[in-house]
Amino acid sequence: MSVVRVFAVLLLSGLLTACVAVAPGSKPAAADFDILGRVLINGEGRAFSSGLRWRHDATGDELWLMSPVGQTLAHIVADTAGAVLTTPDLLEYRERSVENLTRRALGWPLPLGGLRHWIQAVPIPGENPVVSNRDGSGRLQLLEQDGWSIRYSYPDAPGAVLPRRIDLNRSGQQIRLVIDSWRNAEAP
Predict the structure, then answer these.
(1) Can you give the pTM of this predicted structure?
(2) SS3 for the chain, per residue?
(3) How far is residue 11's CA from residue 76's CA, in Å, rounded to a whole number?
(4) Contacts of 2 (CB under 8 A, 6+ apart)
(5) Domains and CATH numbers, the chain
(6) Which of 16, 95, 121, 186 could form a disulfide bond with 101, CB atoms 3.0-4.6 angstroms apart?
(7) Any residues with CB less than 8 A from the CB of 160 and at least 6 apart, and which?
């Protein structure tokens, strides 16, 4: 078998493996992270702010939206089966996606599918960004993808690669995430 044929077979098997690993219409997995921070959301005539803890791993996402004194206002669990939001009085809302769930239960959609990548300052793999600007250190400063415009701010610490603040805008909806700490996170 010639070198070209061996290379073609290896390339084809790699492509087929990649097709199996990512189901059609799904977004590739983001690296694991666990963050503490704050979120502010404006849009559709509503404003919301809270503390935030967000844990993401290969099995899914778990988010806690918290009051200033640490009381859980909403607990969201999302995986391949769908998403569930539980309120402090134990009411449960269920939907197929976090975007639909938060729109129905809270009045605004949270773009979790893209956000799990964007929060780590990387575009959604396989989806070309419309605009992507980087600073002199190669860190993402501006990203336009999936209808969202995302701006990044980083800590002043030398070598910081994970953002401190992310501002997202789309069609009148604004989301600001301020990350106070990255827990058990590896730099992307």
Answers:
(1) 0.79
(2) CCHHHHHHHHHHHHHHHHHHHCCCCCCCCCCCEEEEEEEEEEECCEEEEEEEEEEEECCEEEEEEECCCCCEEEEEEEECCEEEEECCCCCEEEECCHHHHHHHHHCCCCCHHHHHHHCCCCCCCCCCCCEEEECCCCCEEEEEECCEEEEEECCCCCCCCCCCEEEEEECCEEEEEEEEEEECCCCC
(3) 40
(4) none
(5) 3-183 (2.50.20.10)
(6) 95
(7) 154
73-109 residue pLDDT tens: 999 999 999 999 999 999 999 999 999 999 888 888 8
CA distances from 105 to 87, 92, 131 (A): 9, 9, 32
> At which residue do the structure tokens 């404006």 appear?
42
Gyration radius of the chain over CA positions: 19
